[in-house]
Specification:
The protein is α+β, with helices and mostly antiparallel strands. Helices cover 16% and strands 27% of the residues. It has a single domain (12-82), classed as Roll (Ubiquitin-like (UB roll)). A five-stranded mixed sheet has the order 2-1-5-3-4, covered by helices on one side. It is elongated and about 80 Å long.
Length: 98
């Protein structure tokens, strides 16, 4: 190979890690949009795509991003969080009056 040229990376392995610690690995090309990986993960896990949030080092990963754009390398981890609705305090509190 000519000096100064780097080997072209065909595919990298990305691990998608859920909140419960389970991992799913995907092989993707560095220029593949994450929307394709998100859909594959959604199909495999049975979650609605619009209820999931994907993070890399705490920053949200968008469907139009690619691994190359974000500097993601082989065997890096992407975290997935499933949106949770509810669980907050009620807006009206009830008090027991004696």
């Amino acid at each position: 190979m000519a000096e100064g040229k780097q080997a072209k990376v065909e595919a990298i392995t990305l691990k998608v890690v859920a909140q419960d610690g389970t991992e799913v690995s995907f092989k993707v090309k560095p220029k593949t949009k994450f929307s394709k990986l998100f859909q594959a993960y959604s199909d495999r896990k049975g979650f609605k795509l619009d209820t999931m949030r994907f993070l890399y080092h705490g920053d949200r990963v968008l469907g139009d991003n690619t691994p190359a754009e974000l500097g993601i390398e082989d065997n890096d981890h992407i975290e997935v969080m499933v949106e949770q609705l509810g669980g907050g305090r009620h807006s009206q509190q009830q008090y027991l009056v004696r």
